[in-house]
Design goal:
68 residues; mainly alpha; auxin signaling pathway
């Protein structure tokens, strides 16, 4: 029976904690601190979906070596 090593758990936490921290911070900025209006959030969402995600996808795909 294979057990999950503590090092593996640490690697998973190192990858996921910053993402969840950023999501919680963004939620707090909008919901509690009122730093962004709903219109500004809509513009940010459009920017992310139409510009940032395609550029990030291109970077990940172009850095991949399928022959290796």
């Amino acid at each position: 029976m294979a057990m999950i090593a503590w090092a593996d758990v640490c690697h998973v936490l190192e990858a996921t904690v910053p993402l969840y921290a950023a999501m919680i911070f963004a939620y707090a900025c909008v919901r509690w601190w009122k730093l962004f209006t709903p219109e500004e959030c809509s513009v940010i969402n459009k920017f992310v979906s139409k510009i940032f995600i395609p550029l990030l996808s291109y970077q990940v795909i172009s850095a991949n070596n399928p022959i290796r």
